Amino acid sequence: MAKQQEKPNPIKQKIAEVLTPLLPESLAKKIFLGLAAISLITMVYLSKDYGITGDENYHRVYGHHVLDFYTSLGKDTTAITAYGDPDSLMRYYGGFYDGTASFLALKVFKNSDEWRVRHAWNATLGWVGMVAVGLIVAEIAGWQAALIAFLFMVLSPRFFGESMNNPKDIPMATGYMLSYLFIIRFLKSIDNPSWKTAIFLGLSIGMTMGIRIGGLLLIPYFLLFYGLYFVYNYGFATTLSVDGFKKHVVPTLKYVVVAVVISYFFSLLFWPFGLVKPFTNPFITLEYMSKFPVTIRILFEGESISSTEVPWYYIPKWFMISTPLFGLIGLAASFFILGNYKRNGKLLLIAFIYFTLVFPVAYVVYKKSALYDTMRHFFFVYPSIIILAALAFDYFINKYQKNAKYIIAGVLVVLLLLPGRFMFANHPNEYVYFNELIGGAEGAYGNYEMDYYMNSVHQCDEWIKKNEKLERKPDGSKIKIMSTAIAPVYFDFLADSAKIETRYTRYYERIDKDADYFVFYSRFIDRQQLLNKTWPPEQAVFVTYVDGIPLSCVIKRTDRMDYEGFQALQKGDYATALQKFQAYVQKYPQNETALLYLGIAYAQTGQIDNAIAAVQASLNIYGNNGYAANLMNQLYAAKQQR
Known about the structure:
mainly alpha, elongated, Serine Threonine Protein Phosphatase 5, Tetratricopeptide repeat
């Protein structure tokens, strides 16, 4: 039997009336708008402090190609071709962010630093996402709840920090939030839909797809809850009956069709690869990206594992340890507000938010997808936690009277101060945030990824510029700076390329390289070294920290005995190598590579016992060095043969 529309219930209305906000709607709206304006100015200004992340240059180059494609009216096809690994993958990304960023940097603010323009634009899009979260909550619960949600987003250290320089995930999250906003508005007005809402819904989904093909999921999201609306309100049988379908569904179908068509074709306007073959390339991309395996070593729960072998709870665990407590507490409390929203006729809207939180995570668990770089690929999911948390806190503030109302608000302020303190103290490395459940950065160190995106490297480069004399050496050669984070270092010193040369090196090969400075970040450093505090190394002259935990460092080569010893080893001059490394490890006894090379020099000069002692000292520092372990086995075998 079809479900009938409920008549107004005076008891339920009475229950609703006792929910009195702490702030009047008009005042809460003014505060929301005022804080939003201040936040935009603040974020754009602060964006100048952030470093160049590991992926940004791929996006910068691709953005140039996207701009060239459109300004040449499609004659320059570099944006749709494979022009170098891994750049060839960029054609599968929509060009909305990268193309607009390049347009702003090269055409509008062409006399400004390109990276600053890109970061300011990134920050702006991050801010739009935060505001959209507030507007979503306003649609469901009003402006006081919207204000809480906006504060939650601004004081989410990881989202805030990556808003400045994450060109992949932050624009994607913003597109999702704008789409959620118009999906909710459409569902709320479905009995009397407007073309304006349908058009903006199509544009927001199209923008998201124009950033990443994953935005295509928004169309089935929308269609699913569009259908559930009728089933929930009129029953399954009535909805699918001929008369019921004509009466309830058909009048709104034209708005749905328009929204879907706009979303698909609008996305192609910013995506050269999709535009040239609009009915095949988007689906080729969807299939390719869904199967693309990313294999990278990651640190998770104290173990170095492959991104293709992460446990099923990888993403839930990251949400658990990197979401501020207000998000986790609010999410847990949100289950207790469902009855109220059912009585108010908004249960379907809440169900939509829960779905956007659960489905993407459940899907990657089911697909056993390769996962890495903490939770950043799920920034489009994170705001759903915030929305539910804000709704819960708002409800309980409104539910109670007098003193209880202020106590809950006071608890909320304290919870906001916890991540706020972290952000203020650790700018511009806000994104390396861990909550109190894991013990903050100290509790996570050595167990989870810290500065995986190289942001702190910029501070190292700035220290070198401000504190070191960067001129050509007496012999006329350039100063050499080597790093594991070569892209950020290269661009930070590009303006000084006449006197500075930058190159890549692995951390454990630093002795082998003829360099004057090294800039290293903590990713891929052996966990044992992180915990035994032999990283950063003794030669570090500058270190960046987050709550006392090192993220990156500058090593200045004040003498060259290590490199000279390595050169002697290479030439077979083992006596000189031995002399050099003996002197070097006396000065720097915690250098695991120097100790290893000292052991080799001892072995080559027949001093097996000394070689064993030196290699063992190296293994005490860096126990996972397979080469050193193998050498130790050979040394013991040689000793037994004596």
